[in-house]
Amino acid sequence: MNPPPTLPWDVAAPFTQKVVVEPQHLDHFQHTNNVVYLSWLEQVAWGHSQRLGLGFADYERLGTGCVARRHELDYLAATFAGDTLWLATWIAETDAKFTMWRAYQVIRESDRKTVLRGRTQWVCVDMKSGRPRRMPPEFVSAYQPVTASAG
To answer: Which contacts of 32-40 are long-range, i.e. CB under 8 A and separated by 24 or more positions?
Structure first.
């Protein structure tokens, strides 16, 4: 499902997924729990990676995967049960060797407000040893940074 065309994305045409905040996503303050956002960001990242042609089966075949080294999340507004959110992600930068940064933006559909911005640094590792490993050509080709601004 495509998001409404008027959402104010930080980049042109990011990869997107829709979620609806459910009661089980809420914390004691009755807004979306921070850990839930992190889980959603992981889901949209995997969806994007699969769209780029690199699912977990490809990681296993190549013996190389990406693991999170650092998350930076800015919570800009609270969300509540019933809110429809659009999660977006894109590759923001890569050294084409060992690391890349994936950016995220979450927009509430009802008021078009960005409620979260974030990024994760991913490190390429050998899947058996867990040690850093150079990106295979498939990673370098698929994980290209988005440079165009949405304006």
So the answer is: 32/78, 32/79, 32/80, 32/83, 34/73, 34/75, 37/73, 37/75, 37/106, 37/116, 38/71, 38/73, 40/85, 40/87, 40/106
How is the chain split into domains, by residue range? 15-142
CATH code of 15-142, in short, is 3.10.129.10
Per-residue pLDDT reduced to its tens digit, 51-110: 999 999 999 999 999 999 999 999 999 999 999 999 999 999 999 999 999 999 999 999
Length of the chain: 151
**Which residues make Cβ contacts (< 8 Å) with residue 43, sequence separation at least 6?**
17, 87
Question: CA of 22: how far to CAs of 3, 46, 83, 89, 136, in Å?
Answer: 19, 21, 8, 22, 39
Alpha-carbon distance values, 128 to 57, 60, 138 (Å): 14, 10, 19
Largest pairwise CA distance in the chain: 46
Checking if the pLDDT of 50 tops 60, the result is yes
